[in-house]
Design brief:
The chain is an alpha/beta fold and 374 residues long. The chain has one domain (6-373): Aldolase class I (TIM Barrel). It has helices spanning 6-12, 24-28, 31-37, 48-56, 62-71, 77-102, 122-136, 149-160, 173-192, 209-220, 225-228, 235-250, 254-261, 285-288, 301-310, 321-333, 338-373, and strands at 15-19, 43-44, 109-113, 141-146, 165-170, 202-207, 268-272, 295-299. An eight-stranded parallel beta barrel has the order 1-2-3-4-5-6-7-8, surrounded by nine helices. Helix 7 (122-136) links the parallel strand 3 (109-113) and strand 4 (141-146). Helix 8 packs parallel to helix 9 (173-192).
């Protein structure tokens, strides 16, 4: 009897695997259907970098761009992008609708991100999120909002408005706690207005491998290598496990009990940035080590293929939180501030997505000029 597909085994262990990638051809050539039916992939996430690669590096979107320009020759690159992205998200949402209907309403989700240029403007983030939500008009779509200070405020407002949100670019346990509280506040505000809260789903996208890249760099430069070296490669996982401990506490607490009774769905932790960046670590390290119930792991195609080929499914996420906290305490004792590192990673994440968004708009502008000149 052949070994079970690890991607399927992960689902049976209680973790939902979502694909961190989207491209128009995969929606029509059977690739996405295969991932859903054979690998039991439960959703898709996207970001400006993913769309930059899909739109700028292929000609798959050129036909729709030409049509849009034919209808509105002066259409801006940003509005063209929104039209392209909304079409992909709608089609993907249709493909995942059966998954959504079979779940409690939190799988089968497809995510589209607001412009990263709005990351520090709560009001503008809310406005664009509502615009995208209305334009897509699918029950199984999440609007992605960055976990900046402004994003916390925007997330609470959007939750109260009944919009499902994927909060992205979370690096610190403290910011994650703020997001959890914003979710509870938003649901509570909606419930107080006698509005339905049972159709709202949310994930908190907690980034992993980027934390190890930054912390390992600080550890490798530390004067006390006897104390620092053994911690390398362990801190991102420990940071995530401490966050998971908070998830378990808050969503099994009396604070969430009233909301749960009204149909509220717990906001799951989603492990993001799970592609291994250090070649000395296993290429499935962050998938295996964060395997556990009631979580999501969003993985890029290369990591997904690697896990299908040689991944191991064990519920390693359930180890005692105290052990993980001890590792974080050891880093602090070395004078390395995880808070400073995670704040810097948040800034870099926003900047990286903003840069990718600018490149994407320039690529669309270039395509428009080529099409008009033809």
């Amino acid at each position: 009897m052949p070994n079970k597909n690890p991607l399927v085994a992960a689902t049976e262990a209680g973790q939902s695997l979502w694909l961190d990638y989207i491209q128009r051809s995969m929606l029509s050539n059977g690739e996405l259907d295969s991932l859903i039916n054979e690998d039991q992939i439960k959703g898709i996430t996207s970001n400006p970098s993913i769309f930059e690669s899909a739109i700028a590096s292929t000609d798959e979107y050129d036909g729709q761009i030409a049509t849009l320009l034919g209808d509105a020759p002066d259409m801006t690159a940003e509005n063209i992008f929104k039209a392209l992205a909304i079409q992909d998200i709608k089609d993907a949402a249709d493909a995942f609708l059966p998954v959504y209907e079979k779940s409690r309403g939190d799988d089968g989700m497809v995510s589209l991100e607001v412009s990263p240029t709005l990351a520090h403007d709560a009001a503008a983030t809310v406005a664009e999120a509502k615009e995208l939500h209305a334009a897509i008009d699918k029950p199984n779509v999440m609007i992605k909002v960055p976990g900046t200070r402004a994003g916390v405020e925007a997330f609470e407002t959007l939750t109260a408005a009944g919009i499902s949100v994927n909060v992205t670019l979370l690096f610190s346990v403290q910011r994650y706690k703020e997001i959890v509280q914003a979710y509870i506040n938003g649901l509570s505000a909606r419930l107080e207005q006698s509005q339905d809260i049972s159709k709202i789903a949310s994930v908190a996208s907690f980034f992993v491998s980027r934390v190890d890249v930054a912390v390992d760099k600080a550890l490798s430069a530390h004067a006390d290598q006897a104390a620092a070296s053994p911690l390398m490669g362990d801190i991102a996982i420990a940071n995530a496990k401490v966050a998971y401990g908070h998830y378990q506490n808050i969503f099994n607490s009396s604070q969430f009990e009233k909301l749960s009774a009204a149909g509220a769905i717990p906001q799951r932790l989603l492990w993001a940035s799970t592609a291994t960046k250090n070649p000395e670590y296993s290429d499935v390290y962050y998938v295996e080590e964060l395997m556990g119930p009631d979580t999501v792991n969003t993985v890029p195609p290369k990591t997904m293929d690697a896990f299908r080929d040689h991944g191991t499914v064990e519920q390693r996420l359930l180890s005692p939180v105290a052990e993980s906290q001890q590792l974080l305490d050891q880093v602090a004792a070395l004078g390395i501030s995880l808070q400073d590192i995670t704040e810097q990673l948040e800034r870099e994440g926003v900047e990286s997505f903003s840069t990718a968004f600018d490149r994407l708009l320039q690529a669309i502008t270039d395509k428009c000029q080529t099409i008009k000149a033809a």
